[in-house]
Amino acid sequence: MPRVKRGPHRRASRKKTLELASGYFLTKSKLYRAAQEAVERGLKFAYVGRKNKKRDYRALWIVRINASCREAGISYSRFLHGLKAAGLDLNRKVLADVALHDDAAFKQLVATAQAALETAKIPA
Predict the structure, then answer these.
(1) Record: fold of 7-119
(2) 43: phi > 0 → left, psi -120 to 50 → alpha, else beta; which?
């Protein structure tokens, strides 16, 4: 196997890591080993944060839908069950947007869900 000298590749790799670490405090932005550890840690938190962001938004949408449902006199779970029984396949993001911006349309959705629950003969 031929001998490989890593000069340009190593320099490029280190430069990329130090570029990602620019703005970090003290040696974490200057020295390669400290920068490498800080960048790996930061990328790990960024990955987890992207998952947590989705979780947080879903929770926010559920809170908004639930608040509007309670105003309309139905629980969140019965509302979603009624929508499913009525064959309406709306995700929580869309429902939360309707609940927040279009009260009349949300009331129609509640009426549709309640009518579907009545026809399904589910006790309250």
Answers:
(1) c-terminal domain of poly(a) binding protein (1.10.1900)
(2) alpha
